[in-house]
Amino acid sequence: MTDQKYSELAIEKIAKTKINDVDFDNINFGRKFTDHMFYCDFIDGAWQQPKIVPYQPMTLEPSARALHYGQAVFEGMKAYKDDNGNAFLFRPEDNHRRINISAARLAMPEFPKEYFMEGLTTLMKMDKDWIKPGVGNSLYVRPFMFAIDPAIAAAPSEAYRFMIICSPAKAYYTSKIRVLFSEKYSRSADGGVGYAKAAGNYAAQFYPTGLAQKRGYQQIIWTDAKTHEFLEEAGTMNIFFRVNDTLLTAPISDRILDGITRKSVIQLAEDSNIPVEVRRVTVSEIKEAATNGSLKEIFGAGTAAVISPISAFEHGGEVFEIPDTENSYALRLKKQLLDIQHNLSEDKHGWRYEVK
Amino acid sequence: MTDQKYSELAIEKIAKTKINDVDFDNINFGRKFTDHMFYCDFIDGAWQQPKIVPYQPMTLEPSARALHYGQAVFEGMKAYKDDNGNAFLFRPEDNHRRINISAARLAMPEFPKEYFMEGLTTLMKMDKDWIKPGVGNSLYVRPFMFAIDPAIAAAPSEAYRFMIICSPAKAYYTSKIRVLFSEKYSRSADGGVGYAKAAGNYAAQFYPTGLAQKRGYQQIIWTDAKTHEFLEEAGTMNIFFRVNDTLLTAPISDRILDGITRKSVIQLAEDSNIPVEVRRVTVSEIKEAATNGSLKEIFGAGTAAVISPISAFEHGGEVFEIPDTENSYALRLKKQLLDIQHNLSEDKHGWRYEVK
Ligand SMILES: Cc1ncc(COP(=O)(O)O)c(C=O)c1O
Ligand SMILES: Cc1ncc(COP(=O)(O)O)c(C=O)c1O
Fold it and tell me: Which residues form the signal peptide (chains A, B) (predicted)?
């Protein structure tokens, strides 16, 4: 696709904005969408003209391959606004790179960077009023790609649709959460698709997560499928453990999503001289640390939840409570991250991407 | 849902059949669909009125949860016709049971048996002309269910659509195939969703299968994700090994689909006094058997391919050719199966299900 000729973005504006129908103070995540959406179809081996049109339902064949064989990948990112009305994205090129990594694993075509960045920034400008200022507010941006070829043979599709839709958001989890360390169910295996944001990875977690929720745990921390001895990540967050003053987190592998929040947190911790160990973290060392009091914090890190502190975990029938700590790393890192995202502090790594 | 009141099947017939547009001698699997389709929506906790309507595209929200989180399951079955024009399905209640097992694993609702069987048989009667007589011909029937709730929160959908669409088919593989035993990639893990016909399981196989195909292997035989020492199944077939006169096949587990062809083959083999061992089959024993000449056959078993003989496999950089054998079990079992399906022989287990 390197020799593809780029066609110009076509734009069709909505007749009248729907923004006044939305109560931004009471937002149910992911149900309201902005005025416009971006889409681009892959047909006959080439990406066709990209378009921004009013957000609307689409027509799909019942045989569209995504519905049968799960060729579908997605991304999640957020747009923020400062008090001067300037809008920002956070490391958006990384989302572009990652959706292409996910796509490759599912035998789907790469989406060109030019189309991604132009579609994304134009959409942000058109729907700018939907990005509300104030820390905690954001516009959740969902790029995704799925197979549309109307053919139910179990083989890669020949046609795809790439879209970007946007939904206003508040922070995902408001209070501390309790989690279960997985002992039976698994999210991904070596040689599998766990490192991809593949649609099927998420549906696979709903049932075991539902079982955990019935027992009072909001999330599962997945362990490796092979031994269940290593702590990997949560459903939509990477996981950090603070033992004494050191932060621990699992290395990236083919089972773990290479989270953009995760790598930003590692960088921010290093910037603050917090020792970080990126290595396999065992269930037993965390239980031991919880027992002897050296486990100070566990928190998740991801675009939706930002930083999500964890107050307790269960494993092997035992519940471990993690007392509140002074000088919480989670709170400090969360503030640093939000300040960069909302243009309230210096951005020495160049993560902010102004939409203009 | 046990106290659900069943509503009557609504039927809207096509104005004019499309059957004359189809060249039944040159069918590209899964691209042509019959005149009608069945659908039923799950809304507000209940299945709504089931309907048969002309096959047509549908309207879906871009936020429909199946496209983001992969809540989608399916089934595959076939309808056959004898020379007197009678139409038959093969063990259709098992497909109904299995789609509900798949659905449960993905936190989706059960589809009621009454709706399934009535929708299926009515659709078969309406599109009966699309089932062509003659061994090898069949109508492939695809029940499937997917999440339609327009909300991109990573949690189970509240709304679903169940559909049945049908596509005329010839046998899937015409000649013997060559396969690769998987050493790196994996299809499913303990505690995962491998036993479900979950959409995401199929997309996950396309990329590694594509790599195998470039090297001249049509399919991968998946090994267990943990050790890659045990032979499990192929992408859309269970696998049998004949060592001397004994048939070996892996036991059902949470990594392996409980194939209807597989269990029928086991029964037919037992009926013919072929010794069958349902147990873990190791890569090393099969390589050894191939080397010492006791490996007589390998074949896949599944609805699409029926029985698919395998002529060679590769593992650890070594290629093992399996010479043709006299008195092939694969051919004998295939004939027995097709004869039952096409009403050419006695059906002592009651597998045939006449559509009338
Ligand atoms: C499985 C999984 N892990 C981790 C993350 C966090 O990644 P990021 O920080 O890039 O949002 C996400 C969500 O995006 C995810 O889906
Ligand atoms: C993964 C997998 N294994 C095995 C089979 C064979 O099952 P059945 O004989 O019920 O068609 C299928 C296809 O249906 C399948 O998708």
Answer: none
